[in-house]
User: Which sequence fits this backbone?
């Protein structure tokens, strides 16, 4: 249990530099409190103190708004930003270093005991739900208010009701190389940066954007809705038609990789 708690604490407080900030998160962050109360309820259940575990889970739901069953199996490094409305049902399995935002449900699709199995580094945006006896791979992100009812492979971004794959990582051998015209690519980068500043509203942009700026994950962190808006803006700005099959995660990895893709499409 303590190894999991340490990983949970590091995940949330690791970016805080001061002791006061870390203590503030520890005592006053409802998401962290929801995670820690779940850990306690799980620990009690494994020691055959089922009634106390259920009571602890009930206290968790009253204090934080999160209903996390002690019979759910959740890996280390769990991060919940806003626990209100979060539900993780009994029998659900979630991997390490996963992130829930707000109003997420990981549970049954109908009145049965079949619940999802989710891999490592999973991320669910506000309102996303994962339902039924399905398997979700590693490094999967689900966009706001999407409903996942079918299994998903590794390294994808899913959106919609029911959710479909928006971005898919391509195999190493199939990844496109850099475009040949660096001067042209530089001009495309400038236009792309301008598009980002005009169209991305849901996430804050860094003051400086260049070809090495990441668009997904640890970079700007575009969600599925922002990606769709950006694709529409690119099609209008550059006079392109981008097929759904061309929306691979590697092309959206950085501003530079996206500029290379635009240059490649413009030349074809």
Assistant:
């Amino acid at each position: 249990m303590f190894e999991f708690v340490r990983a949970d604490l590091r995940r949330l407080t690791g970016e805080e530099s001061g002791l006061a900030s870390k203590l503030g998160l520890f005592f006053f962050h409802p998401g962290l409190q929801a995670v820690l109360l779940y850990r306690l309820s799980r620990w009690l259940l494994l020691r055959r103190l089922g009634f106390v575990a259920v009571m602890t889970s009930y206290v968790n739901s009253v204090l934080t708004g999160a209903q996390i069953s002690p019979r759910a199996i959740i890996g280390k490094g769990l991060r919940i930003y806003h626990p209100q409305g979060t539900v993780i049902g009994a029998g659900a399995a979630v991997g390490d270093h996963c992130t829930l935002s707000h109003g997420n449900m990981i549970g049954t699709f109908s009145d049965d005991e079949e619940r999802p199995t989710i891999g490592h580094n999973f991320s669910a945006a506000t309102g996303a739900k994962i339902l039924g006896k399905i398997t979700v791979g590693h490094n999967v992100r689900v966009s706001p208010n999407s409903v996942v009812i079918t299994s998903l492979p590794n390294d994808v971004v899913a959106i919609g009701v029911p959710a479909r794959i928006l971005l898919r990582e391509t195999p190493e051998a199939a990844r496109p190389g850099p475009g040949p015209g660096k001067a042209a690519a530089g001009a495309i980068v400038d236009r792309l940066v301008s598009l980002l500043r005009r169209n991305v509203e849901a996430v804050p942009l860094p003051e400086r954007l260049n070809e090495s700026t990441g668009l997904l994950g640890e970079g700007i962190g575009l969600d599925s809705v922002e990606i769709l808006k950006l694709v529409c803006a690119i099609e209008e700005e550059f006079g392109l038609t981008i097929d759904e099959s061309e929306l691979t995660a590697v092309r959206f990895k950085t501003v530079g990789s996206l500029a290379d893709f635009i240059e490649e499409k413009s030349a074809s």
Residues 152 and 184 are 37 Å apart (CA to CA). Residues 2-167 form a domain with the UDP N-Acetylglucosamine Acyltransferase; domain 1 fold (CATH 2.160.10.10). The chain has two domains: 2-167, 173-267. The helical segments are 2-13, 19-28, 30-46, 50-64, 182-199, 224-238, 255-267.
